[in-house]
């Protein structure tokens, strides 16, 4: 009797280990920009990300991935839950809705909802106590901390509007001009950018 | 034996779930606003994008004392303390350069002639698009009505 229990426990241990390993492997494999782009509509976002220090333009050689900022990093459960939730949502949008009708300029106003502070702070740990910041930056980061946990809470992206995507406004306008008059010029620029992309 | 193992496993799972879910539980509390500031905000409303940041008067009217009645228009440098500099702002709208209509990188705004931020962008009232003064028919094709 004792032997069987031990045996069952041992097998279940290895099965759970294998399960954990496969999950980890799947999570890692599905976190690269090239994988994200297969379902998410993000050509202008990728193009502007490539220009930014977060996209590997900096001298330090550090590169943040999509999930570094666009998934919560406060707990593993929240991370996985959000990943699955967003994945299902985006796949549905990708296959069942008219993508040309998406108004990206308007969606930028909701940036608070899809940039997670826990992601920013995971790397920028010293955002609140950095002597090399300007006075204003210190003041504003204090302001952010004061409003934390209140109903007027700010997020990093509220102020850092184009963070991670340098020239996002320009890029979105190249892909979908806000004003008709730029249409021809932007088409030419778009072709140039598309050649570099992916 | 089985019961104790099961109990231990259930205990571990429940503890980890509790830890993951409640470590970041947030309490909602109201921020204190000085009544005087609320009154002033009605008199001098700020734009939605500044309102969203819950900016206080003194964030912009820096070094102008404590009396709101004596506050004056802010200099460009004050705007730039958050918004960077002229180059950065010009780059934000650089797609307009293709038609030479970038308002932040304009041919009318170089050399001896310089525009100040507030000439177009009013913080407390409807802004005034200076391009419209000379290009009334074309300016609206290039950009939005109010900056």
Provide structural commentary.
The complex is a heterodimer of chains A (198) and B (147). Chain A is mostly helical. Helix content of chain A is 61%, strand content 0%. In chain A, helix 3 packs antiparallel against helix 11 (168-175). The model of chain A has no long low-confidence stretch (mean pLDDT 90). With 147 residues, chain B is an all-alpha fold. Chain B is 44% helix and 0% strand. Chain A binds chain B through residues 2, 5, 9, 74-78, 134-136, 139-140, 143, 146-147, 149-152, 154, 158-159, 162, 167, 169-170, 173-174, 178-182, 185-186, 189, and chain B through 1-2, 5, 17, 20-21, 23-24, 26-31, 52-54, 59, 81-82, 91-96, 98-99, 141-144.
Summary?
The complex is a heterodimer of chains A (198) and B (147). Chain A is an all-alpha fold and 198 residues long.
End-to-end distance of chain B: 73 Å
Quote the average pLDDT of chain B.
Answer: 83
Count the E strands of chain B: 0
Radius of gyration of chain A: 21 Å
| Helix percentage range of chain A | 55-70%
**Beta-strand percentage of chain A?**
under 5%
Q: Report the biggest beta sheet of chain A as strand number plus sense, adding barrel if it closes.
A: none
Total of DSSP H or I helical runs spanning 4+ residues of chain A: 12
Largest sheet of chain B: none
**Large-scale geometry of chain B:** elongated
Q: What's the helix count of chain B? A: 9
Task: Describe the oligomeric state of these chains in a short phrase.
Answer: heterodimer
Give unreliable regions of chain A as ranges.
Answer: none
How large is the radius of gyration of chain B? 26 Å
What fraction of residues of chain B sit in β-strands?
under 5%
Pair of chains with the largest interface and how many residues each contributes: A-B, 37 and 32 residues
Q: Report the count of strand segments of chain A.
A: 0
Mean model confidence by pLDDT of chain A = 90
Stretches of chain B where pLDDT falls below 50 for ≥5 residues? 24-32
- From the spread of the alpha carbons, the general shape of chain A counts as globular
């Amino acid at each position: 009797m004792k032997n069987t229990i031990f045996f069952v426990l041992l097998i279940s241990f290895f099965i759970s280990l294998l399960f954990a390993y496969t999950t980890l492997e799947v999570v890692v494999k599905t976190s690269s920009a090239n994988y994200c782009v297969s379902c998410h509509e993000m050509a202008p976002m990728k193009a502007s990300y490539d220009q930014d220090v977060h996209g590997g333009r900096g001298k330090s050689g550090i590169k943040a991935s999509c999930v570094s900022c666009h998934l919560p990093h406060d707990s593993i459960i929240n991370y996985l839950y959000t990943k699955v939730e967003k994945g299902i949502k985006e796949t549905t949008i990708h296959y069942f809705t008219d993508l040309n009708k998406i108004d990206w300029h308007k969606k930028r106003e909701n940036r608070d909802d899809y940039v997670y502070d826990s992601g920013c702070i995971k790397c920028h740990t010293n955002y609140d106590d950095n002597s090399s910041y300007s006075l204003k930056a210190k003041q504003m980061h204090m302001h952010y901390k004061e409003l934390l946990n209140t109903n007027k809470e700010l997020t990093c992206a509220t102020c850092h509007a184009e963070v991670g995507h340098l020239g996002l406004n320009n890029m979105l306008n190249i892909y979908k001009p806000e004003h008709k008059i730029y249409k021809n010029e932007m088409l030419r620029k778009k072709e140039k950018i598309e050649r570099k992309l992916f | 034996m089985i019961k104790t193992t099961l109990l231990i496993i259930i205990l571990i799972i429940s503890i980890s779930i509790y830890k993951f879910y409640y470590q970041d539980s947030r309490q909602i509390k109201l921020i204190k606003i000085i009544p005087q500031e609320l009154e002033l905000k009605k008199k001098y409303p700020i734009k939605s994008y500044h309102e969203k940041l819950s900016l206080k008067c003194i964030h912009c009217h820096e070094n102008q004392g404590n009396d709101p009645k004596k506050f004056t228009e802010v200099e460009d440098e004050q705007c730039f303390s958050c918004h960077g500099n002229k180059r950065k702002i010009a780059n934000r709208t650089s797609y307009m350069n293709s038609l030479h209509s970038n308002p932040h990188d304009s041919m009318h705004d170089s050399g001896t002639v310089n525009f100040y931020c507030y000439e177009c962008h009013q913080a407390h009232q409807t802004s005034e698009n200076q391009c419209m003064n000379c290009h009334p028919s074309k300016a609206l094709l290039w950009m939005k009505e109010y900056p």
